[in-house]
Structure formats: C-alpha cells, structure tokens
Write the structure tokens for this entry.
Amino acid sequence: MSAVENHSSVPERIFSAKLLPPAYASLMLGVFFLIPLGIMLAVSFFHRVEGAFYEPAFEFANYARFLDAFFIKILAFSIGLSISAAVIAVMIAFPFTYSLTRASRSTQVFALVFLLAVLSLSEVIIGFSWSTLLSRTAGISNLFAALGLLERSAAYYPSLPALLLGLVYLSFPYTVLVLYPALSRLDPELSEAAQMMGASPVRTFFTVVVPVMKRTIISTIILAFVFTLGAYILPQTLGKPPHWTLSVHITDQAIFEANLPFAAAMAILLLLVSLLMVAITLLMGKDDAAGGKA
Amino acid sequence: MKAIRTIFMIAVFCFMTAPILVVAGVSVNEKKRLLFPPKGFTLDWYGELFTQSAWFNALQNSVLIAFFASILAVSVALPVALFLWQRDSRFARLLFSIGLAPFMLPPVITALGLLIFWVSVGGSGHMAATIISHGVFLVTLPLVTISLGLESINRQLIEAARTMGANERTVFFTVVRPLITPYIVSGFAFAFVLSLNEYIIAYMVAGFTVETLPIKIFNSLRYGYTPVMAAVAVIFALVSIVVFGLVARFGDLPRLLGAAARDAK
Amino acid sequence: MSDSASGLELQNLNMNFGSVRAIDGIDLTLPEGKFVCLLGPSGCGKTTLLRLIAGLQYPSSGNIVFNGKSIVDVPSHKRDFGMVFQSLALFPHLSIAQNIAYSLRIRGQSAAEMKSRVDELLDMVHLPGVGDRRITQLSGGQRQRVAIARALAIHPRLFLLDEPLSALDAKLREAMQVELRQLQKSLGITTIVVTHDQREAMTMADHVVIMKDGKVQQYGPPLEIYRRPANAFVADFIGASNILPCRVIDDSTVELFGRKVATSERPDALSPGQDAVLSVRPEDLHILPDTQRDTNTLSASVTFIRDLGAQVEIMLAHDAMELTATMTPKDKPNVAVGDEVTVEFPPEACTVFPA
C-alpha cells in the first residue's frame, strides 16, 4: 500500500505547486463544513436574545432546556420512529437485495437505476407523492372503494402509519444500496453448498445467508436509522404535529422561533447520537467474511 | 421458490413505483384538482412550469445551483481523492473522512451549521451561498466515485509510464485522467441530481430569497394543491432515471455501487 | 461403510447459455463405484456438466438417470449427493464440527449422533480433535480435508468435486490427489471430479472424460486414452504431441513434407489423397546425429535444448514446422543448437487423424 514513489528520498521544495489542489480542497472543507459546525457548537452555548439572534455567552441553558420532558419525548419518539422504519426497511431490503444480486446483470442495472432515481428524489416530492397516494380523492382508497372493499374512499394521512410507511419508502433504496456490495460479493457457492447438503432454499437463506451477513445487517440498520433520523419533510406532510421529529423541531426553532442557540444545542445532540451510531458500525468492522476464499 | 422470489421482487417494485405513478396520473388531470384516476388529459401543467414566472424562476435557480454546485463538488473531491491515492498519509485519510461526513450525518445538522455560518459572515440569502453550501455538502458523491476509479487503476500502469520517462504531471494527464474520467462524470451526475432535489440546506441558507423547485413545491403545498407540483415531481423522477440510466449505459453501474468486478465465469 | 451401488446415465444432455452451447448433446454412462475425472481446457463445459449432475443448474434438454430413475426434476437439496466446491464454501459463521454436521442437522439427527459421526469423519481425514476451531484457524490443506469430510457426512450416493485441489500448492496437491484416491477406494463411492490438470486425472481416475466445446471427445481409462487418443485434440491435450500436416497415401503410409512415412493403421474415415494430421509423442521421436537413413525420417535443425535434469527436451525445426523430442539424459544424442539432424518416426508411434 505504499505510494507510487518514495517521496522522502526525493528532495522537494516545501511549497510545491502539487500541494495547491489538496490545500484548496482542505480550505473549502475546513471553511464551509468544519467552521460552520464549530460556530454551531459555540452558538449552542450562547445566550438567546429576543428580537435579535443571540449574544456570546457560555451557558448550558440550551442543553438544560432539552432535559424538559417535552423534548426528551421528542428525542425518544424520533429514535423509536427511525429505528422502526430502519428495521422494517432492512427486513424488506435484505431478501430483496439478495434476490437482486442473483438476478441477471441487466435486471440488476435496471433495478439500480430505478432505486438511485428514487433515492435521489427530493423528500418534498416523496412526501407529496405519498400524500397523494393516501388521499381521499386520488388515493389508493379509491381503488379499494371501486373494488367494493370499502364503502367510500377515505384519507389515510396524516397518521403515524402513513409516516412510518413514508419513512420506509424513503430509506428502502438507501438500504438496498448499502447492502448491495456485501451481498453481491457473497460467494454463491456457500448457498449451493448448503443446498447440496440438503437445505431447502428457505432454510439456506436463514441458516447460511442471514448468519453469514449478520454484521452487515446490523450496520445497515444503524446506517438506515441515521438516514431516517434526518427526515424533515415527511413528518410534516404525512404525520401530525405530535409526530414531528427532532429534525423538524430543530428547523422550527431556528427559522420560526428564531432561537438559534437552542436549535444549535439540539443539532449538536443529534450529531452526537449520529456519530455514536456511525462509530459503532465502524467498530463492528467493515464486512462479514463473505466466503471461504479469504 | 423462484416464483415466490419473482412475486416478491415485483411487489416491492410496485410499492416503489405506486406513488410516482399516481402523481404522474394526477399531473395530467384537466381540472386543477387532485384526482386519480385522472379525468381528461392535458399537458398544460407541464407547460406552466415554463410559462408561470414563479415556477420557471425556481426551475432556473435549481438548475443553476445544481450545475455550479456539482462543479464545485468535483473540484474539491478530485484533489482529495488523488491526494489519498498518492500518499496514504494520516492527513489524507482525515481529509477523506471529512469529505464523507456531510453525507453520513442527518443533513439538518449541516444545514443549521451553514445557516449560522452564512448569517455570521453575511452571505445568507444569496445564491452563491447556496451553491457553495451544496458544493461542499455533496462532495461525498464525486469523492466516492473518483476514489473507486483510482482504486481500479493498476499501479503498474503508472510505474510503466514513469519508466518510459513521463513525469508526474504527464502521468496524470496521459494515464490517470483518461482512466478516471468516467468516474468524474458519474460523480458530477450524482451530485447534480442530488442538488436538484435537495431541500433543507437550500431552505436554511437562502430559502426565502432563492427559491428552488423543492422549496417552491413545499411552500405551495402549504397553500393547497396545484398540478404543477405533480408535473415537477414527474419531471424530476424522469431526469433522475435518465441521468442514472446514462451512467449505467456508459459505465459499470453495479461496479460503481460496490459489486465485485464482473469476471468471465 | 460401502454405500448402495449407483450408476449415472446422461442422455442427450444439452445446456445453452443464450446462444452458447455449454453442453452439446452429451450421452454418457458412468459406472458404479468408480472414480471419474472430467478433464478439459477451461470453458469446455466440464464444470457446467458437474453442476447439472448436482442439480445446481437445470438442463435445457435431455435426461439424467441415477439408479434407474430420472433425477432431472429432483432439486439439488433432495438428491443426497455430496459436493466439494472450488472455493470450498466452508461456512465462516460455523465451527469446523458445525460445518461437518450441517447436513446431519438438516436431517434432524440428535446431538449425540452428530458428534460421533463428526469425530469419525475428522479421524478419516486425519484431523482429529479440531472440531471446535474456526475455519480461519486452519491451513489451506486442512480446509480441503474439512470440505471433503463435510461432503461425505451423509454417506452421499454420489460424490462430486469441482476443481477441489486448485487452491493448493503443487506439492500439497500431489499428496492430496493420492489421499483422495485412497479415500475413494476405501469407501467405494462413485466419485466425479472436475479438473483441468491431466496429471491429476491420470493419478486419480479409473475413467477419464475428455471434453471440448461442450462435447465428449473421448471416454475411457487414462492409459488407454494416452495410448490410443481418439483424435488430434486428445492426443495433444493428454501428454503433448507433435501434430504435423500430412496427406494420406494408403492404409499405412502418409506423405509428410514430400517424404513417405509409414504409420500405424489409419482410421476408416480417411481415404487416399485426403489431407490429414500425423500425431507423434515427443518421447517417441528418435534423433540421429546425421543423415543415415531415409525411410520414416525427416531432416531438421536443432533450435533449442532444454535440459531439465530428469528429462531433456530438444526443439527442432523443419522449414517453419516445429517439433519437440524428449528423452532421458542418458539417451541424449550428442547434438548442439544449430546442428542438422535426422528425426526418425517409428511407424507404430505415428497415428493419423482427420485434419
């Protein structure tokens, strides 16, 4: 894994022109990503001033306010909702991705293009689409009514199941794309070996594929959890105000309550939760041993 | 068993397409009402996107921001990826991780950080601020694709070029760049599509003055329904499919997304 | 310990991948209790044939009959065959004992039954007491043995191996070939091994199936195939041959570069005047230091001498045609690169095939 050439043996000017591009990149990431996060951290300790934004201070009031039962409940609800959506998404996505990796290359390309398109679709559009699909006048209940399953069509949103459905939809393509590399590298001979030893396809799936991929599954759930934690539009379009998540409240505090210090404190907490989760997946190691070849 | 698998895959596919199909249906309603199945057929709402100044303005903003932000993202990602590839130093790895971070974290965190930043330095509300913010936020995508491209280069090619007398600069322009161009282009494409669709950062940084299409849809949604939103949603879905379809057509998409290289077996 | 006798019959078997005919009309009857090697260059369809027998792939047409019953529609997990895969496919999430006991667990055996069978199998492959270890704690050769033990756990009716030794280094591979052969003999189990290594096939097999382009080129005991190859491809693939263009003159004479050469009898398919090829093994060619005789000889110049210690290879050229002759060091003629020599073709060693 050594570099192309051994640079230490070649005498070079210290300020080489070659270092300009990485210096520019570091500067951009530093100024427009790290410094904003730093300022946000500072602001989270600032004192809020009604009418203006804030004044410099060092107080824990914003964090203390979070301990209020109301915000604790929001945090707990956000985490519970995101975990539920993540688990459901992975439960559907895992067998789906497994089947996909065993399908023909052209099916795979078709599905990947489609999933990438859905993944990149704005949350606004997904929220609008689902609210249409679940609406009274243009929704699926129309179909049920037409089939005689319902007496008359009804609106299924805003509601918690609608929100959960939307979040599963939102995180499904992401989940598939996270699982795809690991599953497509899974040695197909492992499943074939199990079948030669008498295991039916279903039994093979549960006694070989799932256990071999255990760590991948858990880290995918965590990544999907962090991903759904960022959902901002769906709780507002498909859920009711009690279903608003931390992401919604952060924006609400920042834009409509003009309370930047408190919004910053909540964002820092969200950041810590997310970093913790990402750190767990990194500690778990990258991939499962995908076959006997290693 | 195979039948069950096929049915399952088709069911998931239907679940994924259902909302888009319904929106495509309502977008061609003749009346300005949310109805499905559609009553009558018209493409007027697609036309309004270009004729109604408020919508067209948002379209222009979105495309401008996406274009320049993607160029910016590639310009930052390329040196980071090259830097890590050339010298596997601690700093290079750190820089790479920072480049990955915006995409790993809930975007509202980056959005709020950027809001506070632009308010502090006085860029809030300008399109340039949105472009820079998107550019940095979306660095992750070209960074990942370009790194994959570099990893796939056999280092002996570089060594061969060096033994034939090419200096580092010549090696880059004659060997490395041609090999990673497809990866740069797909990184640009990914960033472009995601910038078009991004809401929260654009909203927080300049949402009240520089309306992009997602912001415009969400704002309109608060005041009620108009079929133009449905038209925009359909166009966005089509743009994404076309862009990723092109990436798949000219590159190895499964490979780009982490599948093992196709062997001849 | 011997299993129920088994015979395998392939009837007009075809397998198409798109427009590629991977298996092209194979008819073959494999005897019971024998060790059969499927041998051929890569892409010849040997692995596909093994996978069809295993039930991992479904043939485009044709029938597979086992012990008198068609098994084409029996899924692989109900065939009760044992298989060793090229990657070995040992389960990384299970211990060695759990790997070996997997098929027993599927069949609902008790813990005690499984334990005694696992111990028996580990003894059989000379790995006693490693049952609790992880796969990653074993060397390549040990993993090989575990994979073999695992495939044999249920006393399979048929034992299939797909390039089982390809991951091992040369020395270990040769030792395992002998061991595998001895194991098969003691169990008397019908065994089919896919390999591209003719030496491996010669070491282990009772019968060899030579394949090319999805077709069987020749089937029979290894020595018989070596001595009487059915066509020029087999002659060249099994032990190198010099394949030279010639023209048929009569029953036992051909014209080779303008000279008459006596051969063993030509096949019926050839008539006088037809273009054909003459095949002669390098070890059968004799090199004479000067132009002494004129029947069954060809003049040539020495282009290279490769002295491998145990064997000497002399490369020769007659015009643009290259020839190779091999001999033991004590039979090495006193020639050097550039010398003009005479090459003698013993008639009984020269076989004629259609071009």
